[in-house]
Amino acid sequence: MAEALRRLTQASSFSLLQDKLESWNKDYHIISCDQNLNRCCELIELTAKIQGQLFTILNLAAAEGGHYAGVDTLKTRLLPWLGTCLSMSSQSVSDDTSLQLIQDSVEKDRRIRELSASHGSEMLKMDTELSSTRLQRDSLRAELIDAQRELDDTKSKSATTLLATEEEILQLKADLRSAREQVETYKRKLEALDDNEHQIRLLRDEVSYLRGEKAMLQDRLVRSRSPSPLPRLNRSSSPMRTESPTRAQLTNSSRHARLVSRFNDLYAVERLEAQTLLRRYVSDLEMVQKIIFIAVVESFKMGKMAYRQLKLRVKKTLSPSHFGPESLGDATVDYIVRNLDIYDVQASVNDVINSMNVNPRISFPPEVDFVLIGSLIRDVCRMAFAMQTLDPPLDLAFATDGELFNDSKYRRSYDADFSAPLVMHHVWPALMEGDVVVVKGEAVTGRGILWRRNRSRSASPVRSRSLSPRRSLALNNKSLSPDRLSSSCL
Asked: What does the DSSP 8-state code read for residue 403?
């Protein structure tokens, strides 16, 4: 029974019967009467076949139940239905029921057609979208290929440009190097030219000076050969013997003001710069101030000593040929004022550094050189040398630790004990003109500390400062002074 039922289900006989019935309903008013009858007979035959299969299944089901199984069902349902169907006339089904069935069939057919049409339109739309998507894919693939080609071209061009750029950079570096060498060459030539021009000016001054002396000597020689005694009597009152002020005397006040201003600038600017530089290596501010003060004092001493030595050499050189109206000392000072650049300041700087290296009052790291403050030492040496050309010359006030504080010479530092009468150490020396204070110095005052330090120093041996390799090398390479004056160049 189950196999027969499965075959009936797979055959889809009722679906076929429904399709034929709908097709006949659609073509009923179109086809002829014979065709309508043929289709009706065909449906009856199909219905009979289906009924035959159903009766077979009914028989098999009843057989499987035994002799008495399903008897009540057959009696109550099948037999009355068979009797009614056999005796029922053609008018047994009402018109309303038939019309309702036809309407349901038509509605189902309409829905099927709508679904088929919508499905077809959707399929057509999807086909269109698929075609457009394929076109877009092809265009994007072509664009991707073009972009890849452009990228490859750009890579090749960039590599070529990079090589060219590197070559240009190397060439520019070489040009820059050569330009710097040329600049250095031009600078050296310019310095040599400036030196030559300076020497020319000096020689011209010397020539004019010698010409004046020559004219004066010739005039004296002519007067000495003259037989008339009148010129000899009036020789002392001759205008040639009247003394005229030299350049050093004429510029004394302006040089005095300029050097005092320079002394103040060294205190306000260069001293602070040197103090900041030394604080990187020495943490004790007092020791830094002592180093700067001693450097200034030693530089002033070396500048004064260099001036005295140079003055002696110039005077010795000028004395054989001096016949001017001014004195030999004035001529010597005037020559030095005119030629301040003949001062060998580097020799004085080296002497100051040597003196500071063996100074027991200074504690300084041996690996660091006093060349750090070489610019301050050089400026002080030049200033001290120039101050000796003034009339009267300027000098520094004598100062020592532990002296009684003098308010007319010094002002107290901001961190000093203003009630203490003694000077612990000096920050900056006072500038003197004879016994008159021109510029006050700066000092730090305190109580009791100085005497404890003196006792500790007296108990310990005197320290000797060992020179570092760089410091000894700097001393061994001491620069020579420029060409000394000689009578041939004056």
From this structure: P
